[in-house]
């Protein structure tokens, strides 16, 4: 998974609600002397993702159903494991839950891990407090990103840009990786 993460970090950042397209071949080609990036391993990871029977949105729904009232804060595909899984972090009350969801069957793999929100740094706690107050969820941002790019989301999470919390979704559309950053609408009305 670290190879895919390295390739994704090479993508340029987008302005809110815009997608930046970068050819997967270009993004995965090692730069001058960059032998750490194994193009073949990344290609295998992407091929594994394309073969997944469970979508990222379905994996989020499975993880959220494990704990009543939980919401997804972060999700990514990990094709380097056997079986390939989605690594999902959900938030429920004052806990962060970590799950691995089998990308072929949708079953929870290897149990779950929980940690208190208090164990996170202040910025992460603030981000999760804002996420909890939003009327839209990560699943909504994934749906918009997939529709906009005509692709299949491979990861999603939160990012701070100019002091605002945004959703960042990476989508595989054909052989292109696209990063979509969306600024969510304001807090829920009470």
Automatic annotation (TrEMBL):
Residues 1-19 form the signal peptide. It holds the Pfam family PepSY. Keywords: Signal. Residues 54-110 form the PepSY domain. Transmembrane segments: none annotated. It comes from the Bacteria. InterPro entries: PepSY (IPR025711). It comes from Bradyrhizobium uaiense. This is PepSY domain-containing protein.
């Amino acid at each position: 998974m670290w190879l895919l993460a390295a390739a994704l970090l090479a993508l340029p950042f987008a302005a809110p609600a815009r997608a930046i397209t970068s050819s997967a071949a270009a993004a995965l080609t090692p730069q001058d002397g960059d032998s750490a990036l194994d193009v073949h391993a990344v290609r295998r990871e992407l091929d594994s993702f394309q073969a997944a029977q469970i979508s990222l949105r379905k994996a989020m729904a499975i993880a959220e159903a494990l704990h009543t009232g939980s919401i997804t804060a972060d999700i990514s595909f990990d094709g380097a494991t056997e079986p390939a899984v989605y690594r999902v972090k959900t938030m429920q009350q004052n806990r962060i839950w970590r799950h691995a969801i089998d990308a072929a069957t949708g079953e929870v793999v290897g149990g779950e891990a929980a940690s208190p929100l208090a164990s996170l740094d202040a910025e992460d706690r603030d981000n999760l407090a804002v996420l909890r107050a939003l009327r839209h969820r990560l699943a909504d941002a994934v749906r918009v990103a997939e529709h906009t790019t005509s692709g299949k989301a491979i990861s999603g999470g939160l990012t701070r840009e100019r002091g605002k919390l945004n959703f960042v979704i990476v989508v595989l559309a054909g052989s292109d990786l696209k990063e979509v950053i969306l600024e969510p609408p304001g807090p829920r009305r009470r």
